[in-house]
Design goal:
Elements: E1 4-8, H1 16-25, E2 30-37, E3 44-52, H2 58-65, E4 69-70, E5 73-74, E6 76-79
Antiparallel strand pairs: 1-3, 1-6, 2-3, 4-5
Length: 108
């Protein structure tokens, strides 16, 4: 059973500790809370993930947290999907096609 939640529409002032405290104050046991940050700038991206302790009811947590306001912003809470692993697969295509206009030189 999944124990990880996606939390969206986070204020940019939210920290990992702040997200952890918010979920804990709502009555859920948190194993970890992470606010996702931009790799280049380090600024928060506005979403994060919360992993609930074993035995917690994810659906109850979603119902209890979805729409709750954090610093005036209503949160979007869903069950987290597993990370994508298909990035290494070629995406088809490859461009090309058409003819090479430079190899057909016409002398007038």
């Amino acid at each position: 059973m999944a124990t990880k939640l996606f939390v969206g529409n986070l204020p940019h002032s939210t920290t990992d500790q702040g997200l952890n405290e918010f979920v804990t104050n709502a009555g859920f046991q948190v194993a970890s809370a992470v606010v996702i940050r931009d790799k280049m700038t380090g600024s928060p991206r506005g979403f994060g993930f919360v992993e609930l302790s074993d035995g917690e009811d994810v659906q109850r947590a979603i119902a209890g947290l979805n729409g709750q306001a954090l610093d005036g912003r209503p949160l979007t809470v869903n069950e987290a999907r597993p990370p994508r692993t298909d990035f290494a697969r070629p995406r088809g295509g490859g461009g090309g096609g058409g003819r090479d206009n430079f190899s057909r030189r016409r002398d007038y």
